[in-house]
Amino acid sequence: MVVSNRCWALLALVASIATVAQASTIRDVLAYRAGDGPQPTDISKLTAEIIVNDGYPVEEHQVTTADGYVLTMFRIPGGPGNPAREGKNVAFIQHGLLCSSADWVILGPGKALAYMLVDAGYDVWLGNARGNTNSRRHIFHDPDARNTDFWDFSWHEIGYFDLPAMIDYALQYTGQTSLQYAGHSQGTTSFFIMTSLRPEYNERIRSMHALAPVAFMSNLRSPFVRAFAPFVDQIDWLMRMLGVNEFLPSSDMMTLGGQMLCQDEARFQEVCANVLFLIGGFNSPQLNRTMLPTILANTPAGASVNQLVHYAQGYNSGRFRQFDYGLTLNLIRYGSIRPPDYPLDRVTAPVALHYGDNDWLAAVSDVRQLHSSIRNPIGLFRVSDPNWNHLDFTWGIDADSLLYRRVISFMDRYN
């Protein structure tokens, strides 16, 4: 059998992903060498530890979705200059793909969106989608078992099940009837799924702030996505054959690698930076290299392979639609050979779309198409830095002055 170079490249890519996904953590290796067997790694407290170290109170809350996933949320009810009290306006923030709630506190007091919202008087809730390091539990399925059903989801289920469960919990716990929402990347994708397929949730949103909104994707420039998009069906099949369902799980290996290779004075620090730039766009002045070890201790936080496959399908089709299972399964699930589009005309919550010119994953033209597809847009808001990229929305040095102050100002208007 003759295998083309492109097929060999595909096999190498999948093999590399499989190796990463199945690699033992450093703790596992040390325990094995000591004859004590594997020791599972639990880094679910990293977000809470950061918040406590920064001098803010934090609460950890669990909610179970209708399909059995146990999700962790972190609440910051007050701060050093704004103590916790009942009746505060609620702000809910949702992370992007391969990320976690840690994104919203990494920049530190006075800079991170979560802290700025707390200081502005908000009761802040940080969500975590199924499958990341904070939400790796299910009432039946084991995420670490081979061929487990735990990973049988994409961002469709995050929008349909996870967001409603977390929002309902936060509102019930605080006694509020509506809240402010901010999401980055996949945190915007899942929001549009929720409000289009479960439109009653529009009434629970005072205003939504989409940071690097991702729905339509046909004009994205990221070589990371464009490289595997043509092979998405084969990759999905091969990963399933290999029994690999989780993409880039976080581990001690990534944490130690970030500390050794990406810290200040390390030779490979610039390599670490350029890996991030290849995903989201180049903007060297906005990346604080000193933060790289902390970023890599929390990111990648794990995701289902189907989340990446679903995005690649969107790039290939040019449509914002449900997961494509193939002709036969589509007929069974949807009653048609193609998956249905998400009905964005049912999104009636006030939505502000914040975008960057140099965002390789949320192209300006795609954001404009999204803007024209929803019924109640607050507007399109460009970040003034012409090099602003996809990851600057969470880690950019000047995110506080170029973006977050504007977001909070809009939130205040809609209370």
From TrEMBL:
InterPro entries assigned to the protein according to its UniProt record, in alphabetical order: AB_hydrolase_fold (IPR029058), AB_hydrolase_lipase (IPR006693), Lipase_euk (IPR025483)
Keyword vocabulary terms for this entry: Glycoprotein, Hydrolase, Lipid degradation, Lipid metabolism, Signal
Superkingdom classification of source: Eukaryota
Organism: Anopheles melas
UniProt-listed PANTHER family: LYSOSOMAL ACID LIPASE-RELATED
Organism lineage: Eukaryota, Metazoa, Ecdysozoa, Arthropoda, Hexapoda
Family recorded in the similarity comment: Belongs to the AB hydrolase superfamily. Lipase family.
BP GO terms, sorted: lipid catabolic process
Name by which UniProt lists this protein: Lipase
Domain Partial AB-hydrolase lipase: 47-106
Residues making up the signal peptide according to the UniProt record: 1-23
GO molecular function terms noted in the UniProt entry: hydrolase activity, acting on ester bonds
SUPFAM superfamilies associated with the record: alpha/beta-Hydrolases
Entry annotation: catalytic residues: S185 (nucleophile), D359 (charge relay system), H390 (charge relay system)
